[in-house]
Amino acid sequence: MKSKKMLKLVATDLDGTFLKNDKSISKENMEALQSLGERGILRVVATGRNLVKTQEVIAAHVPFDYIVFSSGAGVYDCKNEKLLFFQNLEKHVVQQISELLVARDLNFHLFKSVPENFKCWYHRGSVPCSEFESYFDYHQSYAEPLPANQNIDSEACQFLVVFRNNMDRFLALKNEIQENFPEVKVVRTSSPLETGYIWMEIFHRSVSKGNGVKFVCDLLQIEHEYTLGIGNDYNDLDLLEFTNYSYLVDNGPRDLKELFLPARSNEENAFAKAVGEHI
Fold first, then answer.
1. Contacts of 128 (CB under 8 A, 6+ apart)
2. pLDDT reported for residue 99
3. What's the whole-model pTM score?
4. What's the rounded Cα separation, in Å, for the pair 279 and 273?
5. pLDDT: is 88 or 197 the higher one?
6. Which domain does 96 fall in, by range?
7. Residue 171: CB atoms within 10 Å
8. Domain final position from 182, 204, 226
9. What pLDDT does residue 7 have?
10. In b/e form, how buried is each residue of 223-248, taking b as 16+ CB within 10 angstroms?
11. Are 194 and 266 within one domain?
12. Per mean pLDDT, which range of 38-42, 155-159, 175-179, 188-192 is the poorest?
């Protein structure tokens, strides 16, 4: 391990990292958060969840200082209950990518602009997809069908496209989108439903968990060398590439493990163990 420096900021993913599989917070992880606070070390959530869904599992008494939500599309100050930053996709990009995905007969959700991105439009392809339906059931109270004329006329936060486990199809669409829309970035993430499906997320090109945490560091003049990050999946890569001490939990993808420091699994208090190596 690198020689240890005093930490000033710790950033953690939620699902599969800080939270247990049942979405609870272990006693050890809560104590680690409190210990960081007592030392004046900032505590940051960096999650793919939107702000509403984040606050469903991180109650007000859980002592995080900032939330980087929707994979970095927004940054929220917990103490002052204030949205500090957000980045949406522009109208023309939203419209054109929507038309492309409909033409490719894909199942997808399109999340409205931050801070209303807990709401979404949805489109069903002609091929039934159980994964899409499971996700739809989870969000249906906030969902409405994509307009029949496909006229969105609005900024949006992100697209979420659900694939069967077919990397060739995923990569072909990723390349097509990135070649035709330089304004966006395409991110692969594993299904949190643990069904083997691949999820494609499409954001503004500047959106990432790493950039969200960098925003907090720049705001508070925290140097990169005093940061620690911990995650579990491909959508944590930007975070772990930004932080100085970067941990991947044991339940993360095998091909990422050699890139980062090893941590226990999320069921074995990975967050508390990683933090404990530095305080």
1. none
2. 94
3. 0.90
4. 10
5. 88
6. 91-204
7. 12
8. 204
9. 95
10. eeebbbbbbbbbbbbbbbebbebbbb
11. no
12. 188-192
